[in-house]
Structures are given as C-alpha cells and as structure tokens.
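RETRY 2/3 - previous attempt timed out on the joint model. Re-submitting the same 500-residue input unchanged.
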Amino acid sequence: MSAIALKTLFLKEVRRFSKVWLQTVLSPLVTTSLYFLVFGVALGSRLREISGVPYIQFVVPGLVMMTMIRDSFLNTSSSLFQSKINGTITDILVAPIGAWEMLVAYVGAAMIRALIVGTLVYLVALSFTWFSLHHFGWTLFFAILVPATLALLGMIAALWAQKFDHLAIFPNFVLLPLAFLGGVFYSIDLLPEPWNTVSRLNPLLYMVNGLRYGFLGVADVSPVTSAAVVLMSFFVVLGAASALLRSGYNLRS
Amino acid sequence: MKPPVLRCRHVTKCYGTFTALKDLSLEVYEGEIFALLGPNGAGKSTLIHCITGLAKQTEGSIEVLGFDTMNDFRTTRRLVGLVPQEIGYDPFFTPLESLMIQMGLMGVEPNRARAEGLLETFALGDKRDAYTRTLSGGMKRRLLVAKALVHDPRLLFLDEPTSGVDVELRRELWSEVEDLRTAGTTIVLTTHYIEEAEKLADRIGILHKGELLLVESRESLLERHSGRSLEEIYLELIRKADGRHAA
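RETRY 2/3 succeeded.
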C-alpha cells in the first residue's frame, strides 16, 4: 500500500468539495435549515410532542441524518462519475493505487463532508432549541457508519452509471423517498398497519432512528437493532464496492 | 544488446467476440524510442492500456523491467508514465496543483520545486495558478506530458501526442522527447504522422488488426527498402495484410 498515494487521493477529494463549498456545504445547510424552519418551528408549535419530546427537537436528528445521507452519497458518486466522464480517472488508474486505497480515500473524504454539514445543521438546530446529547457513543457510531455506508453506495452508483441520468436515479428516486418515509418527520408508531410493518423494511428508518436515539434517547426501534441493520448494510455495500473496484468494473476495459 | 525494459509475451486481448490483440510478443529496450504504427483500430492504444493498467489482457504476460504488470502492478506503475490520447483535465485544480497531486498519486512525496520546474520546462510557468480549463489545447497537451513525468518514469508511453497539435508545438514536443531519451528514458510512441516516426524512432513496429506485422530497426528497414520512404513501406505492408485477410 502506498501511504503517500492514499493521503494524496484523500486530500484531493477533500479539497475538491472544499473548493466548491457554496454548493457542497452551504447549499445543503440552507436547504435543511429551511426544512427545520418549516417542519420544526412553524408546524412544530402545533404538533407539540412526539415520543415524549417536543416536535421541534424530534425532527433535528432526522434532518441531520437526511443531510449526511445525501451529502456522503453525492460526494463519492459525483466525484468518481465526473472523473470517468472527463477522463481524469486515468490519473488514478495508472497510479500504484489499489482498490482499498481508492475506497478509503473516497469514503473518508465523503465522511468528512457529511460530518461537517451534519454538525453545522445540528448547530443551527441548537440555536432554535437547545438540548444536550443523550448518548455520545451511539451518536458517534451512527454519524460515522451511516455516511460511510452511503459513500460506498455512491461509489457503486458512479461505477455503474453511464450517464448523468443514471446517477440522478439514486438521490431523487431512492434516497429521498426512503428518507422521507424513514421517520424523519414522524414516528412510525403513528402509522396504521400494514404501513408500520412496511416501514420497518426501509433501512433508512434504522439510520434515522439510530441517530435519534443518540441525540434524544427516544426511537421507534432499539439502538441495538438499528446498529445491526446499519452494520449489515455497511458490510454489504463494502463487499460490493470493493469487488467492483477490484474487478475494474466500468473503469478498466 | 541491453536488457528489455518492456517484454510482452503472447498477449491477447478480447472484447467479447472481438479480438483486439492477437498473440502479440514484443520487447522494447532501454534508452530507445520505439514507434508503434498502425491504422485506426489496429490495437495500439489497447496494447498501451494493457501495459499501463487501463486494461487487462485476456491472455499472456507483460513485464516492465522484469516485474509483471498484473502481479507487481504497484512496482510497474511507478516505472511507467502515460500521456493518453484523450485530453482530460480536472476543472477543480490548477496546473501546479495537478502536478503536485499526480506526484502524490504516483507514490512520490509532492515537491513544489519539481512541479514548478516541470511547468517551466513545458512553457506553462506563467499558467501555473490558472484554472486548467482556461488553457489552450496545446497547453493542456503539454500539461499531460508534464503529468506523465512527475515520477521520473523509466518507460514513457506517448499515445498519439501530436494529434490535433499545430506544427510549432509538434516540433517542441519531439524536441522534448529527444531530451528525455538523452536523459535515459525509454519511449514508446504511437503516431499517425509516419514522417515523425521516420525521423525519431530507433525501432519501428507496425500493428494491424491486432497483429504485429513487423518489428525492425529504422535503419535496417529503410536500408532493405532502399530509396523508399517509411510511409511507402508502411502502406505496402498494410495493403498486403489487408489482401491476406480478404483472401
């Protein structure tokens, strides 16, 4: 393994999103803050409490997680796909860099972006409603492992995609609906059957509820169950992404 | 004779049912300029891609300085530089940043002085902090050559580096290639400008439909066909091969 190559690729990816911070950091912060203002502040005053906590606080972990999911996915998917399209992927493919270094560098940079944006959204939320973290350990676990999982999924999407339309399928038609239906704005205990059971098939439900437990100590599912689902998702996408990269799928002919 | 820097043994590359390279064997020796000629689709780029890691051969083996390009890819890729045919550039970075990044990717500690030196060599010193997208086509092409040299490769591949390039820049590029050869770099180049190969190359290989029709030193090739240009020899060989294939 080349430590210099790994460090360089990681820093290159961090600098890439830092150079367009208006688009990669500020834009998601503004969008999520607007969600918070509408759902948390405006509607929250009428909804009062869910699961024993004020609604304005209930939506915070969901919005933080939704942002982290989106940003970690977009960071790897857009960067890797653009490299494929503009031909600069050649710079990496001819270098003494193996599949694992690529994975660590791309995923590491995406996690940094997700953690920065997630932290900023959290700080904005605190300016409206102050609360202390219920469990730092669980918070950290989900704040690290979920972006890593989505960053890996982003790499898979970028490897598979042949055109920009392919890439847009995931955030618009998969991640956004699953995030909205994953209990970002409501508890699934409010849903009648069969929707309550159907919701439990959504892996993003466990990601949102895992972070909610870490933040507030309340969740629709236990943190252990959420952690198990997230860990399983992580290892599935890790296996798939590393296998695709090792085989050179859609990269090396 | 010096030991081979590059040794390809019975290399075959298939894309589905199409065979791009057929049982190709080739050796390139230290310090020489080897010109690989052939019409479009002959397999020149495919061969270069197999050697540099952009493609995987279906059969056969490729060694660079005795290291296998599949099993010892980290070693061989440090030894090899590639100037690709297509101009690709990262819109996020300046030429100076691009060179520093490429050094790191090649496993060399990024060195600003070396990067600036390369930019000066390729007349890009005043553009070091410009956005790469604002460079002219010729400048982008020169940046590609500089990027391929950041790690001091022992073996440099130039895949049609002068296609779409004006006469002045073409001359500059070939002058730089001569300098590199003088400095000890082994060079494999592909070009559609046969007169360039005739002028520069020590040895010439002619590839057609995935098969090497000929590998010979330029001197002996021209001597054998006295009074004829390399272009005439090349065209005759290609026509003969086409006749064989048609038959």
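Residues 4-91+160-246 of chain B form a domain with the Rossmann fold fold (CATH 3.40.50.300). Closing ticket.
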